[in-house]
Amino acid sequence: MAKRIAAFGEVMMRLQVPGYELLTQASSLNYSFSGTGVNVSSALSRFGHEGYLVSRIPSNPLGDAAESYLRKLGISQSFLSRGGSYLGMYFLENGFGARPGRVTYTNRQESSFNTAPEDTYDVDHIARNIDMIHFCGITLAMNDNVRNHMKSLARAVKTNGGTVVFDCNYRPTHWRDGGYAKAKPHYEEMLGLADIVMMNEKDAMLTLGMPTDKCERQEQLMDLIPAVAKKYQISVIAGTHRSINGDNTHSLKGFMYKNQSFTFSELLTFSVYDRIGAGDAYTSGIIHGEVEQFTPKQTVDFAAAASMLAHTIVGDTPMSSVGEVFRAMTERVGDVER
User: Fold this and answer.
1) Which CA distances in Å does 257 have to 70, 129, 162, 241, 275?
2) CA angle 2, 44, 314 (to 5 degrees)
3) Spatial separation of the C-alpha atoms in residues 21 and 98, rounded to whole Å
4) Contact 2, 50 (CB under 8 A)
5) How does DSSP assign 141-179, residue by residue?
6) Helix ranges (DSSP H) in the chain
7) Which pTM was predicted?
8) What one-character DSSP code corresponds to residue 312?
9) Quick check: helix, strand or coil at residue 195?
10) Which helix (H) or strand (E) is 243 found in, with range?
11) Which of the residues 12, 25, 41, 85 could staple to 51 if both were Cys, CB 3.0 to 4.6 A apart?
């Protein structure tokens, strides 16, 4: 049941400090290309779908390098536009123990994607040639120009009978002075267009301002998520709860709300090699499970296992196949495969 699935988002250059050094210590950086849209479209391509990226990259050798990298990830170039001069970049310092990882952005608002003119994307053509599209709240935070592209594309896909996926992914630093008050109306508009939404109780409380008298996280989740689904007529809402343990391992439990019922994955505990992009792996797992008509339990277990594997792979982009995810659902770490 392979589908044509697009993701709308910025291509970014990731500049990673080797090992666990700080930027102030390092003398070299490893670069790659990533972004939520890159991660989701690539992961779904590995799951057997046609993965497309709707984006704009520079018309220069940096853009050539990015396009080559996307091709290597199995992402179709059909909806990729060229123009402008810059790519957004971020520097990654890996955390360890009590010291969290740190991401430092640079030059993002001047990137080719964030300065794309009004007529950059042929939204009607794109909408007619895909079955589903993914949007991210980080993209929604960039500027009014990008928000207009995003909403126009979402409306066109809905008009053509496609499925809209929206990952709330609120980042306060991206909204700068406006904060939650500035973000709320844009989030409400995207939620009104979405069929599948990635969020948890914090998004409902903080971004949407929804009240609850519950104190425990899971109780808040089970109180608020059904209210969100009903208010915005959303078919599926999914997300995760994470905890970081004293031995530097992480524990993750996925959830999914569908047909007025919650389904939870088992609690997975694992060591972390690279955390960036693991949420995109979970999202891709939920999308794949819905497309393949898995049961809710199969879908949430598949998504949680996909996210767990993404924590073990260097780089933002999930690299696991369907078979590898299914194997991770039933087996634990063994010896070297020969």
Assistant:
1) 33, 29, 21, 14, 25
2) 155
3) 14
4) yes
5) TS-HHHHHHHHHHHHHHHHTT-EEEEE----HHHHGGGH
6) 36-46, 61-72, 123-128, 137-140, 144-159, 172-175, 179-193, 201-202, 217-232, 278-291, 296-310, 322-330
7) 0.94
8) T
9) coil
10) strand 236-244
11) 41
Structure tokens of 244?
A: 């970081």
For the record, the structure tokens of 106 come out as 């640079």
- Give me the tens of pLDDT residue by residue for the chain, a chain 338 residues long: 789 999 999 999 999 999 889 999 999 999 999 999 999 999 999 999 999 999 999 999 999 999 999 999 999 999 999 999 999 999 999 888 778 889 998 878 899 999 999 999 999 999 999 999 999 999 999 999 999 999 999 999 999 999 999 999 988 877 877 778 889 999 999 999 999 999 999 999 999 999 999 999 999 999 999 999 999 999 999 999 999 888 879 999 999 999 999 999 999 999 988 888 899 999 999 999 999 999 999 999 999 999 999 999 988 899 999 999 999 998 865 544 54
Give residue for tokens 């126009």: 152
Write b or e for each residue in 288-323: b if 16 or more Cβ atoms lie within 10 A of its Cβ, otherwise e. Answer: bbbbbebebeebbbbbbbbbbbbbbbebbbbbbeee
Q: Beta-carbon neighbour count of residue 200 at 10 Å?
A: 20
